């Protein structure tokens, strides 16, 4: 199995835990907690900033003792936009599930002067990108132009069955602004119906990295560098939650030259 593909390590509780150390990189962390009603999880941001994303379900969430109330409304990631909470560097947080809950914890190096906040559905409108079988639906949770974080970029995408996404292929692995930014990235995948699978390829121009993976419900793929397109197979819609971070909070990508002609049709 590819080292870039991380399978869930449990059926409940802490399902996924990606750290910079386990991924072999510097900036991005990701965890996924699956809880039953009444169960709790908590943590400390330390020197990182966090984005708690309610992938599905509802929870009572507090940051540094401040009760943010019961958040969440969708019961699957394929139903509407998410609730999320930004947790700044040095803060403590707690979540108590009030329904079945999938809670993602996205992390990256934090900075000073940022405040905890609830990111509600509709804060950033869902966008339709692409045309034809390259159509997908994108919701920014923490985009680069919101000025609310030091490092984190968080976005979720729904790709209908039979469509491609993160396509035509692009990369962001060079700290060469304004042409391209360096961003590590994780993909947390969900499938509808859940027994399905999708395909993701991660590759570089020189093919020193060239991995193609069948991703299943709950898998995480790591993108340390290179292009990283996704293909949703017929009959199965694909959701993924992306976490990106690097030395600068800018998403500036480079398209694969041999596929740039595709942009004329999308």
TrEMBL record:
The keyword Nucleotide-binding does not apply. It comes from Sinorhizobium mexicanum. This is 5-deoxy-glucuronate isomerase. GO terms for molecular function: 5-deoxy-D-glucuronate isomerase activity; glucuronate isomerase activity. Pfam families: KduI. GO terms for biological process: inositol catabolic process. Its EC number is 5.3.1.30. Keywords: Isomerase. InterPro entries: Deoxy-glucuronate_isom_IolB, KduI/IolB_isomerase, RmlC-like_jellyroll, RmlC_Cupin_sf. The gene is iolB.
């Amino acid at each position: 199995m590819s080292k870039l593909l991380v399978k869930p390590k449990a059926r409940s509780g802490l399902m996924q835990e990606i750290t910079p150390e386990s991924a072999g990189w510097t900036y991005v962390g990701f965890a996924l907690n699956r809880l039953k009603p009444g169960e709790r999880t908590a943590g400390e941001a330390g020197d990182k900033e966090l984005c708690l994303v309610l992938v599905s379900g509802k929870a009572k969430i507090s940051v540094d003792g401040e009760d943010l109330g019961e958040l969440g409304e969708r019961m699957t990631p394929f139903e509407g936009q998410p609730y999320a909470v930004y947790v700044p560097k040095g803060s403590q947080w707690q979540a108590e599930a009030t329904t079945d809950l999938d809670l993602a914890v996205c992390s990256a190096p934090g900075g000073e002067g940022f405040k905890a906040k609830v990111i509600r559905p509709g804060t950033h409108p869902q966008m339709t990108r692409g045309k034809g079988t390259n159509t997908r639906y994108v919701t920014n949770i923490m985009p680069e132009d919101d000025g609310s974080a030091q490092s984190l970029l968080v976005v979720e995408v729904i790709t209908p069955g039979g469509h491609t996404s993160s396509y035509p292929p692009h990369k962001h692995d060079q700290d060469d602004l304004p042409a391209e930014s360096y961003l590590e990235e994780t993909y947390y995948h969900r499938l509808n119906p859940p027994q399905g699978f999708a395909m993701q390829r991660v590759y570089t121009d020189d093919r020193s990295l060239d991995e193609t993976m069948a991703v299943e419900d709950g898998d995480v793929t790591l993108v340390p560098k290179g292009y990283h397109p996704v293909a949703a197979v017929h009959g199965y819609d694909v959701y993924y939650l992306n976490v990106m971070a690097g030395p600068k909070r800018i998403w500036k990508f480079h398209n694969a030259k041999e596929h740039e002609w595709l942009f004329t049709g999308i």
